């Protein structure tokens, strides 16, 4: 099972028909990924915890509106996908076996917009069980890459692993409208593409030292760590493919990647 990193960008992706990334995600089943997964595991940038945590919800998941000041229709959207408590238990088991210590379960938390915004476009029927995995912002990229490595067996068990974040994410430097991407964003986005497609995964793990404008593109790392989870889950010899690239708000890159395990 391939793994994926999806740049979910602005929450307006949920309603704005003009966004190229929205149309890309709507074409998911037809053009990108044909198998129907048994369950979906989403490592979301919008759930930061001190220790690895999975949500283990019974029944339909609540839709969390973890954004402010957006158009009212966005707060009326629902994505009541079934919870995946068995998958949550399996994730916990794999992470603990790999030495990640105490892994917590949250039996009440629903899906934040890092999960439900892309999923409502990819799988609008909301009939596939979904489990979320938190990131740990105080840890580093290698920690999250190793977290992904621990979860690699899930692919053979029919689970689709998605890291949901953003290829660039500096909200202090976004702009309104369709202004051109600034040089710092283009430089980082291009470096990331070249590093991934060339298989320079160690550079991606050490992005803070290797990438141009790394601290500008990601002043905080939570939107980049989901990429490391997805990359690690595909294995050391994984092949990366750029499956979408577009921009919004000037500096928000929607670059998204497929990682295919190579035996």
Automatic annotation (TrEMBL):
Q: Which InterPro entries match?
A: Extradiol_dOase_DODA, Xdiol_dOase_suB
Q: Where are the coiled-coil regions? A: none
SUPFAM superfamilies, per the entry:
LigB-like
Report the residue ranges that make up the Extradiol ring-cleavage dioxygenase class III enzyme subunit B domain in this protein: 3-259
Mind listing the UniProt keywords for this protein, alphabetically? Dioxygenase, Metal-binding, Oxidoreductase, Zinc
Q: Name one GO molecular function term.
A: oxidoreductase activity, acting on single donors with incorporation of molecular oxygen, incorporation of two atoms of oxygen
Per its UniProt record, the required cofactor names are: Zn(2+)
Any one Pfam family match given in the protein's UniProt record, by short name: LigB
Please report which protein family the annotation says this sequence is part of: Belongs to the DODA-type extradiol aromatic ring-opening dioxygenase family.
Can you say what this protein is called? Extradiol ring-cleavage dioxygenase
What is the protein's species of origin?
Elaeis guineensis var. tenera (Oil palm)
